Amino acid sequence: MNTNLDLFPEDIRPHIIPSPKGDMYYKCLGCGAEYGIEELLYVCPACNQVLLIHDRNKDRLKAIPGETWQRIFDYRKMLKIPALKGIYRYHEFIGPSIPLESIIYLGEGHTPMIEANTVLQEKTGLKFYYKNDGQNPSASFKDRGMASALSSIKYLIDQGLVSKVISVCASTGDTSASAALYASYLGSQVKSAVLLPHKKVTSAQLAQPLGSGARVFEIPGVFDDCMKVVEHLSSSYPVALLNSKNAWRILGQESYSYEIAQDFDWDMDKKVVMVPIGNAGNISAVMNGFLKFYNIGIINKLPKIIGVQSEHADPVYKYYLEPDESKREFTPVQTQPSVAQAAMIGNPVSMPRVIQIAREYDAASGHKNVFVVQVKEQQIMDWQLTANQNGHITCTQGGECLAGMVQAKALNIVDENETVILDATAHAIKFSGFQDLYFKGELSDAYGISSDSQFINLPDFVSPDDPELIPSQEKPLGSSQFQEFVKDVSKKIAIRLGL
């Protein structure tokens, strides 16, 4: 697509359309070994630890002042080049080695940030926003990482380094939907297989990978069990792993941080970002993204980061309960049923990333700036319904974030002088089954949730008393009868509305 560069300021014109300049490599978080990106790699071949992706040429980014980077990204909004309309607006920080023609764009990224209404802000005593990542193509934040992971695979295919890829992932629902969608866009080049815990994903989430043509395998157990099978497959067979163990996923999810910074005109002072933890990939990415922008001078403050976990899946919260870092020991937990189903993970694969990046984040901040809070299932459900009844479209993980913000305020981790950004990770419709069960009072006792009448909202059935005035497709009413039907039903509704 042609772009008239003459319309852009002369000093940033050479940087508006990026070209591949990075020298990217995998680095092991355990032994520090380094590997090229020319192969499908997910853990260190030497010690089996997780990897992060670095750029040996990252110092070149410092040659451009932070304020100039701000203008580059602001002016890049004007471009009509598909590869630069999504997360790769920040190409130099996400995939600097990837040429634009290898980038997949399905409409992901740049999701809206909606300020809470007056009722919610008064109720919580805080100014806050929801960033609606459920408005990504597959209706969850996973599309950020998947756009990056599948673009990296397309790059390897375009370079003739791999062919006929089979991608695999374990999922609580959102990852499988995203992986299947992005793989299907590449047609016969990538075939998708997903593993789901049997009867532990919502019907809407199960429908998504099936609709995208993926092979779906349901197995007994929970997500952690699926993950072990996928890890075995990826270490034993030539497949592409698409869980957050894939370091490219982390890169793509860093875009969440970049967008928040840009939406606040690069001012991160007195900002707080709340993230549900789950498999710990997203909170790792959010911290890493802000660190990159801070180190280059694009932002001059690091926002406070608060991770949230349900009491039914809280291994990271328990790890950080020990104040002495030298005494901390990570122990996986056996999860219990949670309405924040996408975060119901007892052994997050990105825990080593969280530990290292959180340490770096606190050090760069000059003080403790990463926190983890725990919330109850009842709080998650009630706060989600409160948010949705005040103009938001948040999922149960978004409810977990709002509950976490309230808990953080009670613990004096946040105060009224700060602005909080909550992560609504998926669309409310994906988890509407929990709402339905709540309204009907049919949630299993295992969730530990009782239905509060102030939130329950069920349909009223309104019908004429006279059965001869009830219309049907098989027996349409005559004109006069239909008028009687309209008057009868209208009167009953008016009475119920107190008109």
UniProtKB/TrEMBL annotation:
GO molecular function, one term: threonine synthase activity
Domain of life: Bacteria
Residues modified to N6-(pyridoxal phosphate)lysine: K142
Sections of the chain in a coiled coil: none
Keywords, ordered alphabetically: Amino-acid biosynthesis, Lyase, Pyridoxal phosphate, Threonine biosynthesis
Enzyme class name: lyase
Swiss-Prot/TrEMBL catalytic activity: O-phospho-L-homoserine + H2O = L-threonine + phosphate
Entry's EC annotation: 4.2.3.1
Protein's UniProt keywords contain Membrane: no
A single BP term in Gene Ontology: L-threonine catabolic process
Domain Tryptophan synthase beta chain-like PALP: 105-421
Cofactors that this protein relies on: pyridoxal 5'-phosphate
Pathway: Amino-acid biosynthesis; L-threonine biosynthesis; L-threonine from L-aspartate: step 5/5
NCBIfam families, per database record: thrC (TIGR00260)
Family: Belongs to the threonine synthase family.
Record-given protein name: Threonine synthase
Organism annotation: Desulfobacter hydrogenophilus
